[in-house]
């Protein structure tokens, strides 16, 4: 199916490009820019190196460059390959093993291209490193309450949109119904929409068809609950 492309593309086999400021790359998607700003904010936090949910992974993907883009040479072709890699990365939501894809870190070797005989498109193997977000049972995280129901509350934490805290795992909090329902305990600590909660992760499940995680948390433990 493939044939080896000639030396035209061999000059790009040892490319080593650093990406430390994605906001300068016009072609990068808004989603990836936002993710990188989140990471930069966390890097300023002293807990950054203690948080296991941020993983740095070394990967190798095949990047397809359409035949019509192959007239470009030198740095223009290199830019086309990297731009396509960033677009593919931004479209990749999550995997079971690595978690959510947040941002590219560095681009390393760009291998020799192979031509698809029927279309003329070229596949380049590209090595790169990236940062992902993986929630692990036993970790303590902080999330924002976005839905309150009698059975419990739903939180968001970073890219994780579905974190459920059952009322059975909320210590002595009691549900208070109304137009804007909330939970309150005997110490008048209130859990309502928009509140930041520190919680313990007790379970997670990857939904393959949605490429998304479902997380279950608990407030049972020391220093857990609303963050003042």
TrEMBL record:
| GO BP terms in the entry | DNA-templated transcription initiation
Compartment(s) = Nucleus
Q: Which stretches are transmembrane?
A: none
Could you list this entry's UniProt keywords, alphabetically sorted. DNA-directed RNA polymerase, Nucleus, Transcription
Keyword Transcription attached = yes
Q: Which GO terms describe its molecular function?
A: single-stranded DNA binding; single-stranded RNA binding
Source species, domain of life: Eukaryota
Q: Which GO terms describe its cellular component?
A: nuclear DNA-directed RNA polymerase complex
Protein task: DNA-dependent RNA polymerase which catalyzes the transcription of DNA into RNA using the four ribonucleoside triphosphates as substrates.
Family, per the entry?
A: Belongs to the eukaryotic RPB7/RPC8 RNA polymerase subunit family.
- Return the protein name: DNA-directed RNA polymerase subunit
Organism, as annotated: Salvia splendens (Scarlet sage)
């Amino acid at each position: 199916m493939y044939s080896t492309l000639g030396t035209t593309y061999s000059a790009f086999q040892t490319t080593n490009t650093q990406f430390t400021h994605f906001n300068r790359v016009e072609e990068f998607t808004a989603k990836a820019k936002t993710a990188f700003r989140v990471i930069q904010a966390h890097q300023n936090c002293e807990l950054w190196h203690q948080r296991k949910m941020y993983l740095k992974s070394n990967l190798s993907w095949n990047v397809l460059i359409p035949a019509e883009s192959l007239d470009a040479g030198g740095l223009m072709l290199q830019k086309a390959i990297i731009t396509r890699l960033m677009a593919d990365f931004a479209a990749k939501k999550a995997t079971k093993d690595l978690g959510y894809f947040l941002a590219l870190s560095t681009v390393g070797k760009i291998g020799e291209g192979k031509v698809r005989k029927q279309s003329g498109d070229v596949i380049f193997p590209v090595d790169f490193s990236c940062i992902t977000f993986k929630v692990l049972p036993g970790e303590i995280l902080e999330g924002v309450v976005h839905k309150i129901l009698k059975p419990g509350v739903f939180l968001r934490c970073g890219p994780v949109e579905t974190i459920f805290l059952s009322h059975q795992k909320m210590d002595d909090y009691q549900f208070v119904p109304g137009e804007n329902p909330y939970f309150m305990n005997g110490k008048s600590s209130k859990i309502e929409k928009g509140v930041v909660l520190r919680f313990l992760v007790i379970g997670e499940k990857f939904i393959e068809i949605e490429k998304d995680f479902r997380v279950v948390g608990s407030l049972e433990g020391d220093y857990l609950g609303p963050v003042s």
